[in-house]
Write a structure and sequence with these properties.
The complex is a heterodimer of chains A (408) and B (222). Chain A is of the alpha+beta class and 408 residues long. Chain A has 14 helices and twelve strands. In chain A, strand 11 and strand 12 form a beta hairpin. Helices cover 36% and strands 27% of the residues of chain B. Chain B contains seven helices and ten strands. In chain B, strand 4 and strand 5 form a beta hairpin. The chains are: A alpha+beta (408), B alpha/beta (222). Bound molecules: adenosine-5'-diphosphate and magnesium ion. Adenosine-5'-diphosphate binds next to helix 1 of chain B.
Chain lengths: 408, 222
């Protein structure tokens, strides 16, 4: 009983080969572009995030500026403070080891890297260039920011346990004509000077950063600021799922009592730009798929008009409304199925080819992969659109009144 | 035995103005009879036939087919009755053009879904042999002459052994030679196979050779 409906549907598909082919190609192209563009988006997002994570921690824990509080706090007494201002207390984290231990207990945390950031002058002879040094534990910092991948000269390894070593941004090295093995003198805001040996030169994708930033060991930074070996200004934290940084940051803030800022908050404007990109690509790829759906819809509508006599006669000889729907829906779903399978193959081909294209720079190979999730998404959305594009004309066909056709 | 019976059929059209197209139609058809329905153009013959065929449900009165009250049934149930008990032949053949003649004839039986495909094919070939169109079996419907197509339509109407075959001017488009062939077929079907046939016709000879004739005039039986 079902068979005759399918039989008729297949006959229509075969006798209308040209239209069938056009509709199928429409779905195929729409499908492949959808999967391709969305897989590309995933790759872009990944590369962008990787770039961000090279410079900014997923969660940064630090001491927020405090505003002066009234001296006495008694109930029922109107508290007055005159000229409230930032308390000039130290911006250090008071008990870093304890806090690091606390953070380590959270199982979503993967890496912890304590750090000191301070402004300095880089001196060569009479020349003084302002900048910032970041005091880190080189191994942990590398684990977190993958600093080694940015090294263009020297070896970041040489930073380990070497209190006199410095890794310079390429801009500084260039401006001060320094190369590996040269000495550089830096002066801190506390007026402390130190001679350091250049062991590595790095290049990030941010030239301003490269003109100001350098890495030294944590102890060296502590000495520059005349502080003891528990002095830390920031604790950087990497987590398993960076998308959860904001909420997990809030948790860490609650646990530690210090302010925790996620990379999403710290890079708000870049995030907004990413959001735009995501929106545009999603919108465009969906539109293409919907246009393909319109292809099926149009062609099936035409078939219904052309076959209106057939529909009338089929209804006269005992085909029910649902039989007519099944005849036309079968056509749409067949076209959709072939188109979707073809689209998957074509998208896979695109991706496989692009994966081998070398872009260079920070990016390397074209950032695209076989994103299973996007394939599944495409199949579901493509299937739904096909169904809808087939169902509407099929429904129309089912409502044909045979008498009105026979009277013509 | 009454194969078809109607009682007090009334029908109105509302477009462009309300008018009564059928008034108090009552009659019945006995099994194995060839009944002709005649009347001037516009007298309501087709309208009545569509009601008898169960395709038009917008009427007052009652209709029985094969002793079963059909009036008031749902669309799906009516579709089953049409598939099972009624065969149709129209003036403009109305075959599915992209299918072979054989397939056209088989479709109602495949829809019914009782016999196997092979059995249906055998039966279709037998009917085609009787109607002398066996040679056309595998040709697409649109490659046949009008007379041949009409015989294919008759074969399709016969495939499910219907209680009744309904025809709307089946010879309206045919020359006298083909008209004679169709008339012959109808007479044989009624005489030899006890097939009941109701046919709307303009053709004098056709009406004269029927078992019964009813005439419509302005929506009345006379
Ligand atoms: N759908 C309709 N709406 C309004 N009037 C109709 C419709 N169909 C038929 N008619 C009118 O009903 C009358 C009977 O038509 P019909 O049954 O086709 O006559 P016949 O088949 O005897 O020539 C005619 O006057 C025709 O114009
Ligand atoms: Mg008529």
């Amino acid at each position: 009983m079902k068979n005759i409906n399918k039989d008729i549907a297949v006959t229509y598909l075969i006798t209308g080969k040209r239209m069938t082919l056009i509709a199928t190609i429409g779905v195929l192209i729409g499908m492949s572009l959808y999967i391709f563009m969305n897989s590309m988006l995933v790759g872009f997002d990944r590369i962008s995030n990787d770039t961000i994570f090279k410079n900014s921690p997923q969660i940064r824990i630090f001491k927020d500026d405090a505003i002066s509080q009234p001296l006495y706090q008694e109930e029922g007494v109107q508290n007055i403070i005159i000229n409230p201002k930032i308390v000039p207390a130290s911006d250090a984290i008071d008990n870093p080891n304890e806090i690091i231990n606390l953070i380590q207990k959270e199982d979503f945390v993967t890496t912890i890297s304590p750090q000191i950031t301070t402004t300095v002058f880089y001196n060569i002879g009479k020349l003084q260039v302002p900048g910032t040094v970041t005091g880190v534990n080189p191994e942990q910092a590398n684990q977190m920011f993958n600093i080694k991948s940015n090294i263009v000269e020297g070896d970041f390894e040489n930073m380990n346990n070497n209190i006199n070593a410095i890794a310079l941004g390429r801009g500084i090295a260039k401006n001060l004509s320094l190369s590996i093995g040269d000495n550089i003198n830096i002066t801190s805001s506390k007026g402390v000077s130190r001679n350091l040996k250049v062991v590595a030169i790095f290049k990030t994708n941010n030239t301003i950063l490269d003109k100001t930033k350098s890495y030294i060991n944590l102890n060296a930074a502590q000495q520059l600021l005349l502080q003891g070996n528990t002095y830390i200004t920031d604790i950087n934290v990497s987590i398993k799922d960076p998308e959860k940084a904001t909420i997990q940051g809030q948790l860490l803030s609650k646990i530690t009592g210090y302010k925790a800022e996620s990379w999403l908050e710290a890079n708000e404007s870049i995030m907004a730009a990413f959001k735009m990109r995501r929106l545009v690509i999603t919108f465009v790829s969906l539109t293409i798929l919907i246009v393909a759906g319109f292809g099926i819809y149009n062609i099936l509508n035409m078939t219904v008009s052309q076959k209106i006599n057939d529909i009338a006669i089929l209804k006269a000889i005992g085909f029910k409304g649902k039989d007519v729907i099944s005849i036309f829906l079968t056509q749409a779903l067949t076209v959709g199925f072939i188109g979707i399978v073809g689209g998957i193959l074509l998208a896979s081909l695109f991706i496989a080819i692009l994966q081998t294209v070398y872009i260079g720079g920070d990016i390397g190979y074209f950032p695209i992969g076989f994103e299973v999730q996007k394939f599944i998404q495409g199949i579901i959305i493509g299937g739904l659109i096909t169904f809808l594009a087939g169902y509407l004309p099929a429904k129309k066909a089912a409502q044909v009144d045979p008498i009105s056709i026979f009277r013509k | 035995m009454k194969i078809l019976e109607v009682e007090n059929i009334n029908k109105y059209f509302y477009d462009p103005i309300r008018f009564k197209v059928l008034e108090d139609i009552s009659f019945s058809v006995e099994k194995g009879k060839l009944m002709s329905m005649i009347g001037k153009s516009g007298s309501g013959k087709s309208t009545l036939l569509y009601i008898l065929s169960t395709m038009d449900t917008d009427y007052q009165g009652k209709l029985w087919i094969d002793q079963e009250l059909v009036t008031g049934k749902k669309n799906d149930a009516l579709a089953e009755i049409r598939n099972n008990k009624i065969g149709f032949v129209f003036q403009f053949h109305y075959l599915l053009q992209e299918f072979s003649c054989l397939k056209n004839i088989m479709i109602p039986a495949l829809k019914l879904g009782i016999a196997s495909k092979e059995a249906i094919e055998d039966k279709a070939m037998k009917i085609m042999e009787i109607l002398d169109i066996k040679e056309q079996a595998l040709k697409p419907a649109n490659k046949l002459s009008g007379g041949q197509q009409q015989r294919v339509a008759i074969a399709r109407a016969l495939i499910n052994d219907p209680a009744i075959i309904m025809c709307d001017e089946p010879t309206g488009n045919l020359d006298s030679k083909n008209t004679a062939i169709i008339l012959d077929i109808f007479k044989n079907l009624t005489k030899e196979m006890k097939q009941t046939i109701i046919t709307v016709t303009h053709d004098e000879s056709f009406a004269l050779q029927s078992d019964e004739v009813i005439e419509l005039k302005d929506g009345h039986l006379i």
